[in-house]
Write the structure tokens for this entry.
Amino acid sequence: MKFCANLSFMFTEASSILERYALAKEAGFKAVESGFPFGFTLDQVKEAKEKSGLEQVLVNLKTGDVTKGELGVTAVPGKENEFKDNFHTTVDYAKALNARKIHIMVGKLENATAQNWQTYENNLKYAAGVLKSENLLGVIEPINQYSVPNYFLSDFKKALEIIKRIGSPNLKLMLDVFHLQQISGDISHSITNLMPYVGHVQIAQVPNRNEPDTNGEINYKYVLNHLENSGYSDWIGLEYKPLKGTKEGLSWVTNYGYSL
């Protein structure tokens, strides 16, 4: 198993995502993933990443003002050009950081219609073409309604249907076990059935989104072993909120028999 730090959730004792690259390196990580680095230029982020010597695995789509809950316009008719602009900007960042994966966030919508679903699929088709030409991988992630009310994509079945219809090797599923448990449960069978379409995995304990070994619903010793036995050998993003300090909370890694 290979674990990468999510800089949007971990090392928040540093105010800036730029500073978190160095802290992740200091903690022993070899790789990181992150949300889109709002407020910083491509050159600033690239310099921080290169100074740390870490690999950048994934970056989230540029979505708008996240402090206002803007998580993307991928399913909004009439905003296709805004989506394309944000997507191309994210591709530029991903290439500069040598990140192969982009999480294509979709956004929050109330009372979604068939037109929203069609717009979403059309935008994903467009993205898949760009990703193919750039040799990048896009992933889409169902997010549970408890964590992000009204998030447009909160159904693994629908996500899988869209991925199958588009049929691109450059568009796959983000399997966040934290969301999987709260959306549908049945983790063991879901991992087995979804694995052929999985492009990235993330983990956190349910319900409080802390370290995998904290009190909660998921037996991560079993889940991590099952992921490995199901053929997953790529990076696993640690998208959790450390219960105390980030470094202190990493003791679970060695306790579970792994290393960073």
